[in-house]
Amino acid sequence: MSTPSATTQPSAPAAGTDHVPVSAGGEPGRLGSLGPVGLVLAGGISVQFGGALAVTLMPRAGALGVVTLRLLAAAVILLVVCRPRLRGHSRADWGTVAVFGITMGAMNGLFYESVARIPLGPAVTLEVLGPLALSVLASRRAINAVWAGLALCGVFLLGGGGFGDLDPVGVAFAVGAGAMWAAYIVFSARTGRRFPQADGLALAMAVAALLFLPLGIASSGSLLLDPVTVALGSAVAVLSSVLPYTLELLALRRLPASTFAILMSLEPAIAATAGFLILHQALSATQAAAIALVIGASMGAVRTQVGRGKATVPLDA
To answer: Which of 312, 4, 287 is nearest to 119 (CA)?
Structure first.
């Protein structure tokens, strides 16, 4: 993705980047570090607008039906665009892409089951705890634990400071989605290293779609064939799957998993902003403070990584 630097430190902490090292100095290195951040942010914005559209579709097709349409449409689009090569891959390559597909499908299914029971804000807040936990586990620097803790305070503020009044089943689904999100981060990085371009993503999306198809048929049946529902589901797929997953996979080739995970704490803030712009939901002082915390934590994490200027070693190295 970028030109390797002559100055690297192979013994840097494992963090899930591609084999391309981060430069210790010079313009290419800075661009290589800042470029993936923009990709992650663009993906987050796309996800939240897609999520808003998915909420409007849920009464028509149900939670599992929406997930099925989203995964199927995304798989078809990616397979047509990428035309991934099926030969020449090892058993380990196929195992990685299969697990990636399973975690992707589980993450989507659990999250939509969650938002069918609890509000979107608390659901996203609980879900993002998975990537935050990963950021602490994947990093060997104490400062990243500080940034994660700051972001954690922010997401709890955004969730209203407590979750006692929420449906416990919905909470469990959201926490499960967060665990799958953390696994998605790890296996997205590994898939990006084993398959060229977005080939691995296309294959993993096909795995996820095939796994969810029986669930969607059992849940929604002929509703999945309604032209309006299919069109809306395809739009959700582009906004919530095709664009963000592709952008994130490309970002993870050059961005450490710990930094990427903390950037994911921006999701509740982006969701609140999308709610204000699209649904005209005013932000309270507490919500504004929460957004400031998560943005501050994310900026601190990125600044720490860019300023460090050291190479990283893949999680599976």
So the answer is: 287
- For Cα atoms 51, 228, 75, give the angle at the middle one, nearest 5 degrees: 60
Compute the distance between CA of residue 143 and CA of residue 148 in angstroms, rounded to an integer. 9
- Those residues whose C-beta lies under 8 Å from the C-beta of residue 275, and which sit 6 or more positions away, are 52, 120, 121, 281
For the ranges 9-13, 152-156, 290-294, 306-310, the lowest mean pLDDT is seen at 9-13
* 313 three-state secondary structure: strand
Q: What is the mean pLDDT of residues 139-149?
A: 76
Closest to 235 (Cα-Cα) out of 109, 106, 54: 54
Q: What is the DSSP letter of 88?
A: S
Task: Quote the CA–CA distance of 117 and 120 in Å, as a whole number.
Answer: 9
Q: Please, what sign has the CA dihedral across residues 298, 55, 110, 36?
A: negative
* pLDDT on residue 275: 66
Collect all residues with Cβ–Cβ distance below 8 Å to 16 and sequence separation of at least 6: 138, 185, 186, 189, 190, 252, 256, 257, 258, 260, 312, 314, 315
Kindly report, residue by residue over 268-291, the tens digit of the pLDDT. 777 777 767 765 656 667 767 777
- Residue among 76, 29, 27 at smallest CA distance from 311: 29
Q: Nearest to residue 69, comparing CAs of 80, 58, 81, 79?
A: 58
CB distance 74 to 238 below 8 Å: yes
Separation CA 106–CA 125 (nearest Å) = 18
CA distance 92 to 109: 26
Q: Are the C-beta atoms of residues 152 and 158 closer than 8 Å to each other?
A: no
Distance CA 174, CA 185 (A): 17
- DSSP structure string for 271-300: HHHHHHHHH-PPPPHHHHHHHHHHHHHHHH
Short-list 145, 126, 181, 136, CA closest to 300: 145
C-alpha 180/C-alpha 110 separation (Å) is: 9
